[in-house]
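Human:
Focus on the backbone:
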Amino acid sequence: MFPINDSFQITDNTRLIRAKDTIDFVSKNESKILLLSHFGRPKESFDEKFSFKNLIDQFSNILGYEIQLLSYEEFLQNGLQQFKEGMNKITLLDNIRFFEGEKKNDKSFSQSITNELDLFINEAFSASHRSHASVNQMAKNILSAPGLNFSKEVMAINDIKNSTKRKLAIIGGSKVSTKIKTLLSLTQSCSNIFIGGAMANNFLKYQGTAVGQSLLEEGSEEMIKDIYTLANKTGCEIHLPIDVVLNDEQSLSIDRLSDQNQFSILDLSNHSIEVLEQLVQRSEIVLWNGPMGMIEDPRFAKGSSTLAHLLAKSSCDVVIGGGDTLLAINIAGVSFDHYHFVSTAGGAFLEALEDKELPGIIALQ
């Protein structure tokens, strides 16, 4: 999946760039390449606003190849005939999610593609938690292998889970429910967890802090209780912001917040950043997933940007995961090269940390 704006301009080409190494490797071995990918959530039929015909020129420019588009209609009529008989070295099938068999992980649909291929390579680790045909079934049909970046993603996550070094997890985002299992898993492997972003509002309220009109997730109390209970058993310390930036751009300590005032918490402030800095100094491995504030508004991106720079200068092994976290790093203007590893995955990254068996990895095994 590629983030785009309303003008169909790709706003973050990280996943494309990461796939380029594998495409280059296969291309040098004189192979014809059929690319499969998805974009958005079309309803299993052609939808022009989700078609790759709007993006194919950008794909060609970013990857450095002339890429031919195999349209939805052409595939329905003639399968991969255009790919097999055409002179183009690289062909991209239009959005794989246009096809009903994709989400159903349908074997017949998957074979209509893999029967015409010699090798299947999965370079979409970010989709490896989906039981979809292009993630799971196709890899079972023919000789298959992980892409170069896919392998790096798996190794980096295994390093985090298996290392005995002192670990810190910095978790942001908005919903507790989407990260509850990850947080429960991290309490068993991390010495410290810092919770920021809108997710922290729920923890602050649970601890009795006034949060005004801040974004909250209903019904999160039991999940938070479970996290604290397990953390107490494992000796993992849970840390929350101690001062915040409000919607009027005022910075306040959390003990000065009052429900008598109308406000929303939208970012970390300076003392919370100092807490993070101290935690990083006490750690050997740092995992960061999720922004610390409402980064789409520059007024409330300072916490995430400061953290990006702080981790870039750290001597820790820093592992980054999640699309919004990548956006925060880009906003901060920090090169990914300053970190031990930057994952392109969001949901798959988190589920792998939970020790889940991902359909994309199972199929390759």
Notes: The mean pLDDT is 93. The longest strand covers residues 167-171. The domain at 152-353 is CATH 3.40.50.1260 (Rossmann fold). The CA atoms of residues 24 and 171 lie 35 Å apart.
